[in-house]
Amino acid sequence: MRVPFNSIIRRGVVPALVMLALVSIFVSRHQLASTAALLMETDLRFNGGRGGTIATESDTISSSLVPISTSPLRDRKVHFLLPATELNDLVCKTIFSASLNGYPSPVLLNFNAVFKDAPEARFMKIAAIYKYISLRTEDDDLVIIMDAYDTWFQLPFETVLARFYQLQERDRLAHLAAYNVTDDDAFPDADGVDVPPYTEHVVFGADKICWPNPKTSPACKDVPESTLPVDIYGDATDQDPYAYMNRPRWLNSGNIIGPASVLKEIYMRAFNIQRRSKVHFSDQLILADIFGQQDLPIRIDYESYLFQTMTHSHSDLVFLYEDQVDEGDDPNAEVLDPITGVSSATAGARKNANPGEPVDDFENKPLVDAAFYTNTTRRKSDKYLAWNRVSGNVPAVLHFNGPKLPLETWWGMMWWIHDRSPAHRRERLKYVRRNGGAFVDDRGEKFMPYQEMCGKFNMFSYKLSPFDRGRVSKGSAVGLEPEPFRLGMNPRKSPSDLLRVLSAMNKAKEEKAAKAKAKAAQDRQRKTAQQNTRPHA
């Protein structure tokens, strides 16, 4: 009996396809199981044996996810992660400001975990993030990771998402321009060169200094230049020994947003570095070094468009105060910098509002060409929002790394505090109580309402700034040294004022050292002269 040839093909191909599918499923499940087993072992070893069940493919955390309607491509899920071992008023301020601005309820990683020492805690922070991203996210999900104890959210969640996509679009167009093609060009291009597809980047906050990595490491020396103009601070740009006038260009690990697919690779590397090393470094050091290798789609928010870090940057910020807004003012009218009198409009040179007063280099330079950022130009309606007068942007997120005095006193400057209407405050508190809270297990399933978590803390109380008292008291509660750090926290001081003070202090210190050296030399000469004039026996 003859069997048709096409029947033989079907009989052979179908089983082969079935076998291939089974092998693919086995490999996928084996990889998932291997990852889960390794992470579970880490959890048992370092988390006090608390353990828990391994995440499986059927597990869901839909209650902690928010679909993105602003995505230009498709709806996505957002995971909002806050590593936090314990609750205090600082964590509650972070959760309060996030909830008030419409963020999804965060997942508190390592919550209530007890570690034997700081190195173990550093290891488990990276392990917990890697575990969550590996087992709880799809590649196309969007992940937001923030420091839990010193981060405030001043703009709405939708604004953060919109700005994230705007940054991606700008970088995508720059990627195409590098190959001399545009969206209208066909692929491959005219020269026959295939243009690699643009990969969505993970965005990190930007620091003005490289720390704690060695200066010769990739994290410090192999990273791109800032996109801010090379003279944004005038002649002192990137030359300030105190770093106040440096352009931000180094990675800060406390503010992150990006696709889960890239973050899985980043944290897999970080986790393996920690696991194999006898020394458990901070996530800041490891992630900065990964960025320095320049082989993953990572970009830094140089313009403080999303994230404003505070180390050496306090004096770049200014708030719009009540006495600068008259009732009936056009809310879309531009704003003048209260220190320099400079317009917030980002097209055109800076002007001095007080003729007869000198205009220093910083005040005489054009701000960033903000054609891409025109929607962030400072307006009268931006009252009580921190504005970065250098980049011309109103950052969406404030990260108070570095000196902590502003973390205690700037809370009273935020818009939800400064509007002293009792009715408005009650409505805001009711909103957070009704919608706020967090997931307090690493699986993102156990939800704790805001009132249960933070009800004992008064979110409308704050410490009075020393500057509001008219002076900076010596021996304050924070006890910061040197004194310039206090000056740098004053939102009414300009970077130029600060640099002059720092330069004067440095000059005075050098003069004092020179006088001491000269006096020591004179003493030695006098002593030698006295010995030479003594009568010899």
Shape: globular
Mean pLDDT: 75
Q: Output the helix-strand order.
A: HEEHEHEEHEHEHHEEEEEHHHEEHHH
Strand content: 5-15%
Major sheet details: 7 strands, mixed
The helix tally amounts to: 13
Number of strands: 14
Structural class: alpha/beta
Alpha carbon gyration radius: 28 Å
Report low-confidence residues grouped into runs of 5 or more.
Answer: 1-10, 23-37, 40-73, 338-342, 344-376, 469-495
The CA-CA distance between the termini, in Å, is 136 Å
Please, how many domains?
Answer: 1
Percentage of residues assigned to helices: 25-40%
Provide a compact summary of the structure.
With 537 residues, the chain is an alpha/beta fold. The protein has helices spanning 5-46, 89-100, 118-136, 157-177, 218-221, 260-276, 283-292, 405-409, 415-418, 422-435, 450-454, 483-488, 495-533, and strands at residues 66-67, 77-83, 107-109, 142-146, 151-153, 202-207, 250-259, 298-300, 307-309, 317-318, 387-388, 397-399, 437-439, 447-449. The chain has one domain (29-319, 384-493).
Please tell me about this protein's structure:
With 537 residues, the chain is an alpha/beta fold. The chain has one domain. The protein is globular. It is built from 13 helices and 14 strands. The strands form 4 sheets. Strands 1, 2, 3, 4, 6, 7 and 8 form a 7-stranded mixed beta sheet that branches. A 3-stranded mixed beta sheet has the order 5-12-9.
